[in-house]
Amino acid sequence: MVELVPTICPYCSCGCGFYLVVKDGRIVGEEPWKAHPLNEGANCIKGRRAFKFLYREDRLKKPLIREGGRLREASWAEALDLAAERLKEFKGNSFGLIASGRGTNEDCYILQKFARVVMKTNNIDYCARFCHSTTVAGLLPSVGSGVMQTSITDLELADCFILFGVNVKETFPLISRRILRARRRGAKVIAVDPRRTPTARYLADIHLQLKPGSDVALINGMMKAILEEGKENREFIRARTSGFEGLRDYLASLSWESVEGATGISRELIKEAALLYAGAERGCILYDEGITQHWVGGDNVRNLANLALITGHIGRPGTGVNSMRGQINGEGAGDMGCVNVFYPGFQRVGDETAKRFEELWGVEGLPREPGFTYLDIIGKCRAVYIVGANPMVAAPDINNIRSLLENLDLLIVQDIFLTETAELAHIVFPAATWVEREGTHTWIDRRVQKVEKVIEPPGEAKPDWWITCEIARRMGYGDKFSFSSPEEIFEEIRRAVPQYRGITYARLKKPGGIQWPCPSEDHPGTPTMFTERFNTPDGKGQIQPVEYKPPAEAPDDEYPFYLTTGRLIFHYHTGTMTRRTDDLHNEIPECFVEINPKDAERNGIKEGERVRVETRRGGLELPARVTDEVPEGVLFIPFHFGDKPANLLTNPALDPGARMPEFKVCAARLIKGG
Ligand code: SF4
């Protein structure tokens, strides 16, 4: 018998729906879901092949235990008993947990509860540390929340977009389609990127090709131009912001020469772009890792908020300063409290919050101090539990990460494949994928959607929430983790997370889901944030000048190039799924380095020739791709390839507030011949 079962794509956070074609309990194909409000039947190349990795032979099917230096298969009872027994040695600060923006809300909620209730620590973090922790650092003080402010479906209302450090055509293809539609109706698009990406080439009216790491200087230049021309929104500034005068005085003291020198862009082009945005009816800023993955990422985001606040392009549908989180549950994992400084619902770690959760969970002694972040968990804890994350590809300076992971007393990894990180573990648990268990995810625009179980997991693989609950039960916390279904967990989430209170499994049957905040069951959800007030103490947007600081590592005689890293349309994140999907893998089977034709000629390098790229942290031998996508003096390497990980080279210099590494820019050299 053939059935069509609706589901949501497991890749990027556009949240597209499609039907899975299921025959005799096996997925055999996909069909468009035309009525799905987010993608209306369209899917990108990854989405159309999303089920293919499920049936790979190398899926993890049984628990594994390290013995005599090798991983051997074990029964669930043996592996769970061992994990529980060993974990008892590591409570408090000697333990840390790294969760995933790919797990369900229910999985993530259970993980943070496990860290806090069983292990008595706030040492919990997830992959957003490496993509949007600086969003929180930048937007929290200015508007009170780091979430996407408009709705995907309202993007078409905008008449001017600034795509700041986001290559939407490759990384959010179905959002790019909405921008294209708006453009066909007359909207203007400004792309800001050091690379001439497909977005800059095919979608943009203006490309601001700034020097890597000069984002703050560029935004200051744009605001300076707006104020010089008197194009700020005075009524909005008066009614809804504070601190404008300080910014105005600071920008007046900046010289255009300093802006042009830092960015490499002429004042005329900066002015043209700035006035286009300021003069729009609805200006919309979308941004991603191009601006967040810097040691000054928090400053970058804060300055974007300044730009939106002085122009009044915020708090209405189709406007805002919108963070583009890349993972399907990048928003939800944060909402659930997989963050070192937040309990569920972004309730800040501290005495009051701990007391509230002690009452809700019926426990005592919950941790009250902020925990370690991602890199500190790996560097300072003795036992680490990693669920659905792969720092051996995703973290900066991988040689260092490897030695830290190899030296742990206990490393437990839970995943769907034996990833580069799982290979180093003492215990490995096989997990179910997105269609092998039910649950909810929260997509980029705070949209909670439900995904149904469609097929059985392979072998003995289990849902993540079940595995963690079983460990907790063996550690004496069975009564706090006695859930028998994801819906039971979701009911507890509704009590813990005020923003989710009105969302129920029954309400989520509606295609397109519900956007939080949704405070009651008769509330329709909230497509647009900050329509009346910001989430700041006085309800106003807080404007504050931001000073430009150059990248932590600049090119010099020894390392004369900028190296930047990023993503490709055919692959997803650390490649665990897409590199196991033949059609996608065959499109781009190996890593490469992009070199500008003039740099290639100067170094005698030809297209396809193998070269060596070195930074102060290591070197990689790669085929050269000679292209004017990168400007002179800049090299680009995609980061999806575990066998040639770009992050072997990247700089672990951290944003001091957000603890975000500077993935996006470091100094490098190029050696012909490898
Ligand atoms: Fe999946 Fe994103 Fe492609 Fe939509 S745009 S099909 S969510 S990968």
Provide keyphrases for this structure.
single chain, 674 residues, alpha/beta, Dimethylsulfoxide Reductase, domain 2, six-stranded mixed barrel, 22 helices, 20% strand, binds iron/sulfur cluster
Write the topology of this structure.
Blueprint: E1 2-8, E2 17-23, E3 26-32, E4 64-67, E5 70-73, H1 76-87, E6 95-99, H2 105-118, E7 124-126, H3 133-143, E8 160-164, H4 168-171, H5 173-184, E9 188-192, H6 198-202, E10 206-208, H7 215-228, H8 234-240, E11 241-242, H9 244-253, H10 256-263, H11 267-278, E12 283-287, H12 289-292, H13 297-311, E13 320-323, H14 330-335, E14 342-343, E15 347-348, H15 351-361, H16 374-380, E16 383-387, H17 391-394, H18 398-406, E17 410-415, E18 427-430, E19 439-443, E20 447-451, H19 464-477, H20 486-496, E21 514-515, E22 541-542, E23 561-566, H21 582-587, E24 593-595, H22 597-602, E25 610-615, E26 618-626, E27 634-638, E28 651-654, E29 661-662, E30 666-672
Parallel strand pairs: 6-7, 6-16, 8-9, 8-12, 9-10, 11-22, 12-13, 16-17, 17-18, 23-27, 24-26
Antiparallel strand pairs: 1-2, 2-3, 4-5, 4-18, 14-15, 19-20, 20-21, 23-30, 24-27, 25-26, 25-30, 28-29
Bound molecules: iron/sulfur cluster.
Structure description:
- The chain has 674 residues and is of the alpha/beta class.
- The chain has 22 helices and 30 strands.
- The strands form eight sheets. It has a seven-stranded mixed β-sheet with strand order 5-4-18-17-16-6-7, with helices on both faces. Strands 23-27-24-26-25-30 form a six-stranded mixed β-barrel. A five-stranded parallel β-sheet has the order 10-9-8-12-13, with helices on both faces.
- It is globular.
- The model has no long low-confidence stretch (mean pLDDT 93).
- Bound molecules: iron/sulfur cluster.
- Residues 9, 11-12, 14, 16, 39, 43-44, 46-47, 173-174 line the site of iron/sulfur cluster.
